[in-house]
Amino acid sequence: MLKQKIQTLAQNYLEEIIDIRRHIHQNPELSFQEYNTAQFIASILDKFGVEKYTNIAQTGTIAYIKGKNPTKKTIALRADIDALPILEANNVAYKSKNEGVMHACGHDAHTASLLGVAKILNECNEDFEGTIKLIFQPGEEKSPGGASLMIKEGVLDAQHQTPKPTSIIGQHVMPYLPVGTIGFRSGLYMASCDELYIRVIGKGGHGAMPENCIDPVLMTSHIIVALQQIVSRIASPKMPSVLSFGKVIANGATNIIPNEVYLEGTFRTYDEKWRAEAHQKMKKIAEGIAEAMGGSCEFTIVRGYPFLKNNENLTQRLKNFAIEYMGEENVKDLDLWLAAEDFAYYTQVIDGCFYRLGTRNDAKNIISGVHTPTFDIDEKSLEIGAGLMAWLAIQELKN
Fold first, then answer.
1. Which is the catalytic residue, given 29, 80, 82, 378?
2. What sign does the CA torsion over 10, 325, 378, 83 have?
3. Is 140 in the active site?
4. 329 tagged catalytic
5. Strand 51-56 vs strand 60-66: parallel, antiparallel, or unpaired?
6. Same domain, 184 and 224
């Protein structure tokens, strides 16, 4: 049976997939700087004898696995390839060699898994009709998001004698799911993400003579507290929203009131109309408070990724296929996740499903969350990462 064939291939190729992952992990590159990573991906695809096209959005790559009757239908699979500006704290043989840069979000695992998919599918191309398009995408971690650039360069269009993809599937590690399990959520899943940059401008002076100052620190404290009304009193309780500030710089001293305070934060939600309304209200509140207290406020919003919605019908099909492959007890339901993902751009254009791959192993102390210096995965997960995705792709082509 095809399922057993794919499972056997995934098991047989696990060590090779692990080697690929470790090479990428040791040689991380930041968003839109993944030149060596792209060359490595191309070399592996060449080794596997897979048709490829490089230099898309500079460091992106697409590849094709063509079955019988390749123009019948196309679906797409996506992996991201960039790393984060984090100093790795793991003491492992495959620790990052690029100090201050780390694959702390599992993109090395995503890329290795998709390369494993390429090898598996290349050996199963007599078992399906149509084409499977593999997208190795740069810059997921940095605005404007590599997905948006890849779309502009036509990765969701008819290309290279293949039709437009009818759907796209993405996979992401999940350190809160145990290895051997995966998770799906139909409908709304991940939030939009906007970056907030604020300058609160006053008049500095001696801390012992505040009457001669217009205190931007005090203004800022009022602004931060007042802006929480955006979530607690203005947003509908039925609409999940998050407003957080992670950076506040008031460069004074114990006896110095500074001239200005600088803030950075994030706003996330699941509705475009409310998103736009919240932007206006945030600016109005901040600017109004600053003006009322004698200062001024420069409020800049950098619009980030849209919210991610998994197509209900596609997601239910893939979940059923996953149950066939792994067993119902290993396929979990996911809750809303207010992190952001540029895979959302693909789902604005075609049907998409973004699911989670369990990588946690408490016995091995592999428990750290993504975007932390101690993040790692149980590499046994790569067997499912490659095998399941190959199975889902073939089954969805048959649909």
1. 82
2. positive
3. yes
4. no
5. antiparallel
6. no
